[in-house]
Structures are given as C-alpha cells and as structure tokens.
Amino acid sequence: MIFFLILCISANAQMECMLGVGGKDNETITKVFELTQEQQKSLKNWSAELKVRNDILREKAEYLMKKNEESSPEVLVTVSIEYQVILDSMKQNIRMMDKRLLGTFSEVQYERYTKLCNQMTLRPIYVNKSVDEN
C-alpha cells in the first residue's frame, strides 16, 4: 500500500516523504487517501501542470548537454552545476505539487499520510492547515 511513496532528498539528513503527484501512481494516491471528486480533479490538473513545468526544464537540460558535448573538462564542471540546478528545480516542482495536494487533505487523510511516512521513517511534508487557501 505504501509503495507509491517516492523519496526525495531534502536539505536535512532525513528523507522527505513524497506522494509523487504527476507520477505513475496518481491512481494509487486516489485509492489510498480516498480522494474526493474535487481532490481528484485537482490532482489531475496539478499533474498536467507539473508535466508542462518539468518538460520545459527537461528540454533545457537536454539542450545544455547537447550544446556542451565536446566541451573541455573545465566547462563541463560549470555545466554540471547548471544541470544540477535544473534537477533541483524539477524536484522543487514535484514537492510543490505534493504540498498543494496535501493542503486539500482532510484531517483523516493527512493523518493517514503522516502514519505512512512514519512507518517508512520519512519526514512528512508539513502543511499549515490554519491558512485555508480555498
């Protein structure tokens, strides 16, 4: 049941507990957390938005690599730093979409999420429920 949770390295030593919105497990997320119709609609929309955002970054990364295929080792060091920035941006996009979905969770859904994360010794993404964005 918890196989759909993916891992993402955070700034801390402990791994962050990611849902993986936009990945191949949207159906599993829907079933495990018993998403409402509105939540399912949001999940679908945010998954599409994530794909667009990360496709742009992926194309940028591919262009960067192709442009520098024949570069010197010194240039490749700079390119690797630029490439890592792109990868970090992609990870941040994934986390942002997960956090959006978590923000729609009921108390019961969020508790289920935190319990699953704790079972896997992962750090749940904190969502401030005192601010209702809806």
Can I get a quick summary?
The protein has 134 residues and is mainly α. The protein has helices at 26-32, 37-67, 73-104, 107-119; strands at 6-8, 16-18. A two-stranded antiparallel ribbon has the order 1-2.
Distance between the termini: 29 Å
- The geometry reads as elongated
Q: What pattern of helices and strands is seen along the backbone?
A: EEHHHH
Strand order of the largest sheet: 1-2
The largest pleated sheet is described as: 2 strands, antiparallel
Radius of gyration: 17 Å
Helix content: 55-70%
Integer count of domains: 1
Number of helices: 4
Strand residues, percent: under 5%
Q: Output the structural class.
A: mainly alpha
Low-pLDDT segments: 1-13
Number of strands: 2
How would you state the average pLDDT, rounded? 84
Task: For this entry, give a set of tags.
134 residues; two-stranded antiparallel ribbon; Periplasmic heavy metal sensor; 4 helices; 4% strand; mainly alpha; disordered N terminus
If you had to describe this structure to a student in words, what would you say it looks like?
The chain is mostly helical. The chain has one domain. It has 4 helices and 2 strands. Helix 2 packs antiparallel against helix 3 (73-104). The longest helix has 32 residues, at 73-104. The protein is elongated, with a radius of gyration of 17 Å. Mean pLDDT is 84; it is low at 1-13. This is Periplasmic heavy metal sensor. It comes from Flagellimonas sediminis.
Give a topology summary:
Elements (H helix, E strand, L loop, with lengths): L5 E3 L7 E3 L7 H7 L4 H31 L5 H32 L2 H13 L15
Antiparallel strand pairs: 1-2
